[in-house]
Write a structure and sequence with these properties.
Distance between the termini: 94 Å
Radius of gyration: 41 Å
Length: 777
């Protein structure tokens, strides 16, 4: 938003310099990005003050001026009619390069000239060459946040200046224009959810080719608007002045009543920018009997525009709800001044004021006979009172601002309010769409009080020891354990490609995003496996030979029973999971160990070290991401907590990997629990070790054998570990050999060979009875 200082001071003129005023606005949250002269810097052109003006001795229409700039004086021959002593003007010194050519020292009618005093056209700023360009004006560039739509006008900024400085607000006086004819144009509002108010007026017999006066052109140009025609310039002027977008129709081109309605599929409209667009039921349109003639709140149509041949006009001043305009212009890859304002919120109480102000300007510039103003109100926003607790405001701001000062702030801002001993109840004005909750009012008090007056105090927090339950470990401890196993942590987006969910989780209906940041990241993940595989591929494609990665993060699962809580929202469960992937050689190449690739059992060992001392069990099970014969379900205390396996060959091929990574994924919550240590007697007696090898049926699970031993082992048996698996020609067909190392020990005495042999024989008998196992000979 460009704000010419002279225009702003016509509304509110505090006793502050322009620089101080810009600083005050910035400190109140209305950031002034730049404060510069109305004329941009041009090489060789400086600001000069006219010291004297004398008639040229040899020409009636020329003057000889003495000007000063930078402590030096220059004599310049000038032909401008508005030159006078004391004015500040642009001086193009000798050597300056302007659009019309390079300035050289010359003699004009016998008098030497040290440069040229410039008009706006000389500098390439506009077509105005009626006189010298006065440089007494500066322009503020406001960098407004989207919530401050009220400052998208000179009047809105003037309100801010008045509230901040206490200077009197002098808005333009708007008097109703009496009607000179009874002509009305019918209007309907068929979409009150989109258009809340529509005011209009017919003006007959206007002179559309009238020229825009220089004062209006100058203000428009300095506010960033190009002069187009008198009628268009008036609507732009009122928009900048009052924040009220307007539109002018050629009355004779309208076909029947104007109707504000939603678009219809297949309907098209040619816009003023020359672009033809197709609308649908989500786009609010201005229509007549011929169809759509404009996009409401965005841009008018070519078919009804006012041009130099227009004699009769219909002036529109409408209020469109922000939700009905927001995003529509971007859909068509353009924006407009009107859409920029309407999608943020326009004052819905100044429709008629905008009509009256524009009518008076049109009559002054173009003449004409105004008809009556028609104002149709359908559905306007309700300004709900907002409560602000005094104590709460003082606590948030951190300064004990008195209630009296708070009341003064609301008065300065033009807010209607009621006060009791504990709180204010404020009704936001029609032009402030950003006042909706208590925090909004607290912000208003703070910024008018002055952010620079609020002392900076570092936060002080009482130092207390955090509780660290012995029976629970943190996610950070799980990270440390995986890092100790040579894994590196990765962090991925929670929204992923739909194909990952289908491939790695078998999920055909994941939670979809309404507005994804990228088309390929359109669903919420139900598994970490897709992200881990992508990281493996990313690193492999960059020639990383050995890859170990892990991630700890949430997944998002549909669950009708889920309620709002720390790990869920209504209908969606969000558990934390731990996932890891290993790819490439088991270890970096070295001289004393032959190279081999990482396998299922290596990663299984890493997983067991992650869960220790919690014992995990593994059962063969199918998983959509894993190789059918090389995958297992992970159990903890009999409950499934995750899966582990080699990547399925078809996904290995699809994602371009030369061999399959080994991946696991487990729920973090069960791993965070850890049993309290139990005291056990430590024996000082020597252990006795016996190895036994037995022949089992080939389909006998080793885990079932270990479970049977654990359930019925003799009391002196401390541990049993499987250390060998053999299949070969020396064994009967359909069998395998399992060898176990049995460690026996007593806490009080040394075991005899007979006791050890008896315990070993008891185990052999147990396995023979349970699995028909026989000793291997």
């Amino acid at each position: 938003m460009l704000v010419p200082e002279s225009w702003l001071r016509a509304f509110c003129n505090p006793k502050l310099s322009g620089e101080k005023l810009a600083e005050r606005l910035t400190m109140a949250g209305v950031e002034v990005e730049s404060y510069q002269s109305a004329v941009p810097a041009i090489a060789g052109v400086v600001v000069a003050e006219v010291r004297s003006v004398a008639r040229h001795p040899n020409a009636d229409k020329l003057t000889v001026c003495t000007v000063s700039a930078g402590g030096e004086s220059y004599r310049v021959v000038c032909g401008a009619p508005n030159v006078r002593v004391g004015m500040r003007v642009p001086l193009a010194r000798v050597g300056a390069k302007l659009p019309g050519g390079e300035i050289r020292k010359s003699s004009i009618r016998g008098v030497e000239s040290d440069g040229m005093l410039c008009s706006a056209r000389d500098l390439g700023l506009s077509d105005d060459h009626s006189g010298l360009l006065e440089l007494d004006d500066y322009v503020m560039t406001l960098k407004l946040t989207p919530n401050r739509a009220d400052c998208l006008s000179i009047l809105g900024v003037a309100r801010e200046v008045s509230a901040l400085t206490g200077a009197r607000l002098l808005p333009v006086e708007i008097k109703p224009v009496g009607r000179e004819n009874s002509r009305k144009h019918p209007v309907r509002i068929s979409a009150p959810a989109g258009c809340g108010r529509f005011a209009g007026r017919v003006i007959l017999g206007v002179n559309s080719s009238a020229k825009t006066p220089d004062w209006m052109k100058q203000r428009l140009e300095r506010a960033g608007q190009r002069s187009i025609s008198a009628l268009v310039d008036v609507t732009n002027y009122v928009m900048l002045e009052l924040g009220r977008p307007l539109h002018v129709y050629d009355l004779d081109k309208l076909r029947g009543p104007i109707d504000v309605r939603w678009g219809r599929k297949g309907e098209r409209v040619l816009l003023l920018n020359g672009e033809e667009v197709e609308v649908d039921a989500s786009v609010l349109c201005i229509t007549d009997d011929s169809g759509a003639i404009g996009l409401a709140g965005i841009m008018g149509g070519e078919s009804t525009k006012a041009d130099e041949a227009t004699k009769n006009i219909f002036l529109e001043s409408a209020f469109f709800h922000p939700d009905a305009i927001a995003g529509r212009a971007r859909r068509y890859n353009f924006s407009s001044d009107a859409s920029h304002r309407f999608e943020r919120g326009v004052d819905f109480d100044n429709n008629v004021d905008g009509i009256e102000r524009a009518t008076r300007l049109i009559l002054e510039l173009c003449g004409g006979e105004p008809g009556p103003t028609v104002d149709k109100v359908a559905r306007l926003p309700k300004r709900k009172p907002v409560a602000m607790r005094i104590a709460r405001a003082q606590k948030v701001i951190g300064v004990p601002i008195a209630a009296k000062e708070m009341a003064s702030v609301f008065t300065k801002l033009g807010f209607q309010f009621k006060k009791n001993a504990q709180a204010f109840t404020v009704t936001p004005p029609s032009y402030r769409f950003d006042i909706a909750i208590e925090e909004d009012l607290i912000e208003e008090v703070a910024r008018i009080h002055g952010f620079d007056r609020i002392a900076a105090h570092p936060p002080r927090v009482a130092a207390v020891f955090a509780r660290s339950p012995e029976a629970r470990r943190s996610l950070h401890e799980l990270r440390e354990r995986l890092a100790a196993c040579d894994y590196r942590e990765v962090i991925s987006f929670s929204f992923v490609e739909p194909a990952w969910e289908a491939d790695f989780a078998g999920e055909a209906n994941p939670i979809r995003l309404l507005n994804p940041i990228a088309s390929q990241q359109s669903v919420m993940r139900t598994s970490l496996i897709g992200s881990l595989v992508q990281k493996v591929k990313y690193n492999h494609d960059r020639k990383v030979p050995r890859i170990r990665v892990f991630e700890i993060g949430r997944v998002f699962l549909r669950d009708a029973a889920a309620k709002d809580g720390p790990l869920s929202v209504a209908g969606v469960r969000q558990p934390v999971r731990v996932g890891a992937a290993a790819f490439g050689p088991l270890a970096d190449e070295q001289w004393d160990e032959p190279p081999r690739g990482v396998d299922f059992f290596d990663v299984k060992a890493d997983l067991e070290s992650l869960s220790a001392p919690l014992p995990l069990r593994f059962e063969a099970a199918a998983h959509p991401a894993f190789h059918p014969g090389r995958a297992a379900r992970i159990l903890l205390e009999g409950s499934p907590v995750g899966s582990i396996g080699e990547l399925h060959p078809k996904w290995q091929q699809k994602y371009g990997l030369p061999h399959a990574p080994v991946v696991f994924e487990v729920d973090a919550e069960p791993l965070q629990g850890v049993p309290l240590p139990r005291p056990e007697a430590v024996s000082d007696q020597p252990p006795v070790v016996r190895d036994i090898a037995l022949v089992f049926q080939a389909d006998t699970p080793a885990q079932a054998v270990l479970d049977a031993i654990e359930a019925e082992k003799p009391s002196i048996v401390r541990s049993v570990r499987l250390f060998s698996l053999y299949r070969g020609a020396s064994l009967p067909a359909g069998t395998k050999s399992l060898a176990f190392r049995v460690v026996m020990q007593d806490t009080e005495r040394t075991l005899t060979d007979a006791e050890a042999d008896a315990a070993r024989d008891a185990l052999v008998s147990l396995l023979g009875r349970r699995f028909s196992a026989t000793l291997r000979t």
